[in-house]
């Protein structure tokens, strides 16, 4: 049996915060605002896995009212999500994610993002596709008010 999950995550940009995407700290004048490190890419990936398994969303598992998750690396949240999936007998076949950001350029950082995510997912980097696109000066992405990420994943039952 196979399952498909999809997710979208959005966070506003805020001065004084680090910009972390795919577990990579990127030099930029603003970062993403949120309770954890606000890594929208990793959040979208984790929620697509949770969605495929009908296990709710990140807020259900890691509420922003819980101080244990304040500033936590989203890669740790993804690792916990992978453990949940493993207990159901499902493993990742592949995922395809897109980052929507006007700036900074994502292309130089994508190879390391893929490696970080593949390591946490215990899969080959060829199973992790990450792309980026700009907002072309349209909407909140184009006005550089925030960054979004979307992800679709395919899981298969390995039992």
For the biggest sheet, the summary is: 5 strands, mixed
Strand order across the largest sheet: 4-1-7-5-6
The number of distinct β-strands equals 7
Number of helices: 5
Return residue spans where pLDDT drops below 50 for at least 5 consecutive residues.
none
What fold name stands as the CATH topology?
60s Ribosomal Protein L30, Chain: A
SSE string = EEEEHHHEHEHE
Q: What's the CATH architecture name? A: 2-Layer Sandwich
Broad CATH class: Alpha Beta
> How many discrete domains?
1
> How much is the average pLDDT?
96
Sum up the overall morphology in one term.
Answer: globular
- Given helix and strand content, the structural type is alpha+beta
| Percent of residues in β-strands | 25-35%
User: Helical residue percent?
Assistant: 25-40%
Family: Belongs to the IspF family.
InterPro entries: MECDP_synthase, MECDP_synthase_sf
Binding site for 4-CDP-2-C-methyl-D-erythritol 2-phosphate: 9-11, 35-36, 57-59, 62-66, 101-107, 140, 143
Cofactor: a divalent metal cation
Protein topology:
Blueprint: E1 2-15, E2 19-21, E3 24-26, E4 30-32, H1 40-52, H2 58-61, H3 74-88, E5 90-100, H4 110-121, E6 128-133, H5 139-142, E7 146-157
Helix pairs in contact: 1-3, 3-4
């Amino acid at each position: 049996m196979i399952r498909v999950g999809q997710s979208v995550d959005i966070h506003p940009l805020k001065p004084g915060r680090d910009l972390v995407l795919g577990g990579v700290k990127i030099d930029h004048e603003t970062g993403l605002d949120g309770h954890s490190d606000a890594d929208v890419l990793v959040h979208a990936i984790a929620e697509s896995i949770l969605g495929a398994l009908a296990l709710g969303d990140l807020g259900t598992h890691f509420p922003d009212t819980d101080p244990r998750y304040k500033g936590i690396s989203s890669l740790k949240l993804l690792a916990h999500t992978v453990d949940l999936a493993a207990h159901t007998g499902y493993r990742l076949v592949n995922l395809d994610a897109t980052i929507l950001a006007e700036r900074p350029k994502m292309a130089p950082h994508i190879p390391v993002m893929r490696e970080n995510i593949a390591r946490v997912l215990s899969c080959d980097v060829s199973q992790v596709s990450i792309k980026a696109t700009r907002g072309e000066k349209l909407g909140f992405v184009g006005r550089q008010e925030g960054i979004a990420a979307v992800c679709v994943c395919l899981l298969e039952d390995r039992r």
